[in-house]
Design goal:
Blueprint: H1 8-32, E1 36-42, H2 52-61, E2 68-72, E3 75-80, H3 83-96, E4 101-106, H4 111-121
Antiparallel strand pairs: 1-3, 1-4, 2-3
């Protein structure tokens, strides 16, 4: 009598393993590819927002790629593929925009991510 190549139990374990592996790959991909957003706001109400073209010009001149520039209420939101791009853009915009603007990092709603980005991007001054 011929023996089946895979028993029903082996087929179940193999299917479960493949489903678990697929889920782990998708979760890892989602965690690794988190978008990052910068928000630019005027400090004073009378100050006008910089236009998207000037922001694009400053970022492009420094080789920083972004996904989108979107006005939202009294804020200009700039979306990036990674936190590293966002941090580099923040450094460029702090240096090139005139005083009177707040440039804040907005990395999702996760409090842990927000604290890590604050600690990483804030220069520590001792003494």
């Amino acid at each position: 009598m011929l023996k089946p190549r895979l028993t029903l139990r082996q087929l179940g374990w193999t299917t479960s393993f493949l489903v678990l592996l697929t889920v782990l790959i998708l979760v890892w991909s989602a965690i690794r590819q988190q978008e990052s957003t910068l928000a630019i706001r005027a400090i004073n109400q009378g100050t006008s927002m910089p236009d998207g073209f000037s922001i694009w010009h400053h970022l492009d001149a420094n080789g920083i790629r972004f996904k989108s520039i979107t006005p939202h209420n009294d804020t200009l939101l700039i979306t990036f593929d990674s936190h590293a791009q966002s941090a580099a853009a923040r450094a460029v915009l702090v240096r090139t925009l005139p005083r009177g603007y707040i440039i804040a990092q907005q990395d999702g709603q996760n409090p842990a991510v927000q604290w890590i980005s604050r600690l990483r991007d804030t220069p520590l001054r001792f003494g």
